[in-house]
């Protein structure tokens, strides 16, 4: 996507606006598939929570991807997008037995991450295959909020609870067909990931009827020039070799599964916002845009870095700016960053806006959520309309007669 294409999209669909490049998504999917090409059975289950627009889901389905879901609503979206039930895995955390049973009735694969629900589900539905999510007690991830495999994490069944787990399986006679882990996002150290994988292999040896082992995901992508990322090719080579060895030992060709989200869509997305005001203070130059953390919360929530380019003046002299939003509290996208000279009305382009950006958007300050556009084969295609005031109040119950407006007597 060239600057002139993005500027035209902002002009056509208004700003702020999210734009996704289908070609980048496809190339990332193919790159990951190629990295593990030496494995006989590979299944990539796209993590719907990263970007759940139904058009993106349809694109993933067309590539042969499965779908990783964490809510019954994501399961329903996946089915609506054309995924076969058996291609969807339901990996929730802390949900009710009723929600898991509802997903099971839809025919999707079930992944359970706690002993209580495992025992309840196994007692009621012993014939339904179940995957078990293990907590390997391995710390990985670039932020405490996205590191989910450590000992204090709420996710997964502790490896120290394996004896209890095995007793539940034995007593209920339930069918365990998969073992799963997810250590966290922004994985940099491949050796740490491989260490956690060995824990998963050790756990898998306790079950004789497995069909797959799911290693989660969390592969890091670069967020700025010169940034480091997960070496997918090296990981693919090392883990594939070890996985193939385990399959020989196990006596069966299992499926190696991943659930990539950010890796597939992050770099494909950009977020375009217009500069409303350039404000000089005694110490800072602020570029205030027509958006805020209601649309892109990651910098405020995670301290995430999104490279910001001025596509209206790409050759301009670089100056230092703090890019801020219009939300009525601290709302900072970037502090003291070198950006080509900004004037009011310029369009700023936020990179890596494909994953966990629109899906975490809200109507805070009663602002509308922005539209989404797919850049596909050289054309801009609207895949979500900008919200309107009707959308904002659609589900509110306006009780006009509940309160009486107090009449204030006029002063004579």
UniProtKB/TrEMBL annotation:
Xref: PROSITE patterns: ODR_DC_2_1 (PS00878)
Orn/DAP/Arg decarboxylase 2 N-terminal domain boundaries: 23-266
Any coiled-coil regions, as ranges: none
Gene Ontology molecular functions: diaminopimelate decarboxylase activity; pyridoxal phosphate binding
A Pfam family recorded for this sequence: Orn_Arg_deC_N
Keywords per UniProt: Amino-acid biosynthesis, Decarboxylase, Lyase, Lysine biosynthesis, Pyridoxal phosphate
Binding residues for substrate: 298, 302, 329, 356
Pathway the protein acts in: Amino-acid biosynthesis; L-lysine biosynthesis via DAP pathway; L-lysine from DL-2,6-diaminopimelate: step 1/1
GO biological process terms, semicolon-separated: lysine biosynthetic process via diaminopimelate
Keyword Transit peptide: no
Catalytic site: 328
Domain spans labelled Orn/DAP/Arg decarboxylase 2 C-terminal: 18-354
Record-listed N6-(pyridoxal phosphate)lysine modification sites: 49
Family: Belongs to the Orn/Lys/Arg decarboxylase class-II family. LysA subfamily.
HAMAP family assigned: LysA
Database matches in NCBIfam families: lysA (TIGR01048)
Free-text function comment from the UniProt entry: Specifically catalyzes the decarboxylation of meso-diaminopimelate (meso-DAP) to L-lysine.
Name this protein carries in UniProt: Diaminopimelate decarboxylase
Organism in which the protein naturally occurs: Maribacter hydrothermalis
């Amino acid at each position: 996507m060239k600057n002139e294409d993005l500027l035209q999209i902002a002009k056509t669909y208004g700003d702020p606006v999210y734009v996704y490049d289908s070609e980048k998504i496809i190339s990332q999917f193919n790159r990951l598939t190629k990295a593990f090409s030496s494995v006989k059975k590979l299944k990539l289950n796209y993590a719907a929570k990263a970007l759940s627009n139904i058009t993106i889901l349809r694109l993933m389905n067309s590539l042969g991807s499965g779908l990783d879901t964490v809510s019954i609503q994501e399961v329903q979206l996946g089915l609506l997008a054309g995924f076969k039930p058996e291609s969807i895995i339901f990996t929730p955390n802390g949900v009710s037995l009723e929600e898991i049973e509802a997903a099971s009735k839809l025919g999707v694969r079930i992944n359970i991450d706690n002993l209580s629900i495992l025992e309840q589900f196994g007692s009621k539905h012993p014939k339904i295959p179940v995957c078990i999510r293990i907590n390997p007690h391995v710390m990985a991830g670039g932020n405490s909020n996205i590191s989910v495999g450590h000992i204090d994490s709420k996710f997964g069944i502790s490896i120290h609870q394996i004896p209890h787990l095995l007793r539940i399986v034995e007593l209920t006679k339930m069918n365990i067909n998969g073992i799963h882990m997810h250590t966290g996002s922004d994985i940099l150290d491949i050796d740490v990931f491989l260490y956690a994988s060995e824990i998963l292999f050790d756990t898998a040896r306790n079950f004789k009827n497995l069909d797959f082992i799911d290693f989660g995901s969390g592969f890091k992508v670069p967020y700025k020039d010169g940034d480091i990322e997960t070496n997918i090719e090296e990981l693919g080579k090392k883990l594939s070799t070890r996985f193939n060895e385990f399959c020989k030992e196990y006596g069966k060709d299992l499926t190696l599964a991943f659930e990539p989200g950010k890796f597939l869509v992050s770099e494909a997305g950009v977020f375009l916002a217009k500069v409303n005001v350039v404000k000089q203070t005694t110490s800072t130059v602020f570029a205030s845009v027509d958006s805020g953390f209601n649309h892109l919360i990651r910098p405020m929530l995670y301290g995430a870095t999104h490279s910001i380019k001025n596509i209206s003046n790409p050759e301009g002299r670089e100056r230092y700016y703090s890019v801020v939003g219009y939300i009525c509290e601290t709302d900072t996208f970037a502090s003291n960053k070198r950006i080509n000279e900004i004037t009011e009305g310029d369009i700023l382009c936020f990179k890596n806006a494909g994953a966990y950006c629109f899906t975490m958007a809200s109507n805070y300050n009663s602002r509308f959520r922005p539209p989404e556009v797919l850049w596909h084969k050289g054309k801009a295609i609207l895949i979500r309309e900008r919200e309107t005031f009707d959308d904002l109040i659609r589900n509110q119950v306006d009780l006009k007669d509940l309160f009486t407006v107090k009449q204030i007597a006029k002063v004579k």
